[in-house]
């Protein structure tokens, strides 16, 4: 109808022009312009293809309810659970901002991929148990119609933690807590160890705890891609960019003790597009900090920790990047198919990789010998000095081995108590944390994602209570110390 | 009866295919590259374009999954009233398997799924052998089996939902289990077999026809090293299943239609042609392979077009020197870098 009116109008226009004085080419000019205008109007009408003047598909949307900073396994897990638990369907717009789509420095991709329940903090054990259940039923949780099922290549071989005389009592009490929470862990004496794993040298080992079920290792890349695929099918938007600024508003209030605090609310997130100076301000309601090793920087951008030290205002997020090395070696006479993920009392660990007598392993350095986290270069001397001797002492077959390759990755290390930070910040009211897991983030990711989604949607935790992991413990000084950090 | 029942290769409405068991039904469609384009069904076309149709397909997928869960529910009343052995036996019979109590004959349900409840009277008689071949038993369903503390032999041949996680659960049976058969289970890989080292009393292990195992010969060697007193076999089961097993006419479509020996069992009901049972024919798998293309293993794209032949196992070490080694290659081989299995990075 509009088209007919246009045609009539055009017709009249032409007629009108002809009656008056006109120059020769103006009718053609009118025709050309008119057809352009006609095309534009047709494209705006419903049913036509909209051709904007230039392509903006790489930019994030201008409005988003939740912006998740960081597209690793924790960020994607939060996005998944937000979309899964939201009511009604499609209610929440989620945007995941990831700086590096190749995940070249992401902790998830560089992880050794183990999952265990042998922790000392009950919440960690619960998180791990939930995550194991998630991984076991991964093809029910992350099923996308018409896509092939996921194979995370889980090895149910268990973890074997060895303890010397000093740590035997702590290990016993830990195992008691673990069994109470439902983990299937058993204690073994050195003699039972020798019977079961004859390749172990039990000198110096007083006690060992062995996970019979729900423990092992898997392929973290597959989990990441599975989450990505599912989350995209659920309608989460992805943006390839970096968060450079938070635009927030603040208001001053007084606490009950009379202290002046500044409450902040983030209104906009400036996302700078990769390899460009262009940025897009994304108006958002919530920001979730799942940036892993870089969470400290994101928190600083949001104003966390800007204040006099010793106050809540001035408490920074104590998560920093720590570099860890992983080495892959071949040992022809090494332990066989039944090798669990062995963690020695000295902190050195190894696990079997594949069927060809290859092993992955490493060791966490002490505080004094922490390497510089500026880059991901591997220090091979570290293997010679710190990893090989304890492993060769524990497994005599490892005296002859050949290192095939090595890589380094970051831990999002929580310098306060090596446990995760989950939940909102008390002052920056719409920033939620899901970071600081210090090497066990991958194995807790599905459960942490659910916990954060419950916090966002319901205001409190429902399945697993992660209140002990709140940010305020840094100010209050209440450590939730995790002893079994590998 | 469904269109896709006898020909699992066609993509015609896999959702409506009542014979499709488990959640593999829909995903199986994607693994078949050749027929993908021509077999695209109307439902798939609509699902790509409309959220409602996609939601419908997801719902139907969920229903398939729930059906399997329902089959594996625990029978707590029977367990409390009649004991764990009776409950385990009831569970297996309900799934369509066979049970043998100590000192008694094999009990199996008939063509219509009915079985006599006489075994509920054997209160304290333990279950000695369980034949759950082809049953839709999964991780939850194993609860009932793990309570059978004196189980001697367990046959889980061609069970479509038994995977590596389930194998990690078998350790409570370590004291009694002597024979285990996992032949033809599509989801079991060498990673799950590694957790069998708890079963120290195991004497016979059948790991033939496992499509998800990447290197069957090497795996067999490693398993035998892991369990010194156990004999692992790759060439089909040496011990025949119970005397009561015949192909059931009421079930024209087996739970895992892809594995060839099963097709032979159901389509040719002639026991003489049933070559998979007879260990005289080591290449029975090859002879019975009627579907050379399209064995979608549960883990995505195809590994072998034919079921793997039992090859002489190759040791991973020492590395093989190639025919014409150049100087650099020889140097590499000498230092051991010439041999490279797949590394994660």
Task: Kindly list the characteristics that best describe this protein.
heterodimer, A: 486 residues, alpha/beta, FAD/NAD(P)-binding domain, D-Amino Acid Oxidase, Chain A, domain 2, eight-stranded mixed sheet, five-stranded mixed beta barrel, 12 helices, 17 strands, B: 345 residues, Leucine-rich repeat, LRR (right-handed beta-alpha superhelix), 3 domains, seven-stranded mixed sheet, 13 helices, 7 strands, 7% strand, disordered N terminus, disordered C terminus
Low-confidence runs of chain B: 1-36, 238-308, 338-345
- Give the proportion of residues in helices of chain B: 25-40%
N to C succession of SSEs of chain A: HHEHEEHHEHEHEEHEEEHEEEEHEEEHH
Number of domains of chain A: 3
Kindly report the average pLDDT value of chain A: 90
- What is the name of the CATH architecture of the largest domain in chain A? 3-Layer(bba) Sandwich
Question: How many strands in all of chain B?
Answer: 7
Q: Kindly report the name of the CATH homologous superfamily of the largest domain in chain A.
A: FAD/NAD(P)-binding domain
Largest sheet: number of strands, sense, barrel closure of chain B: 7 strands, mixed
The portion of residues assigned to helices of chain A is 25-40%
**Structural class based on helices, strands and sheet pairing of chain A:** alpha/beta
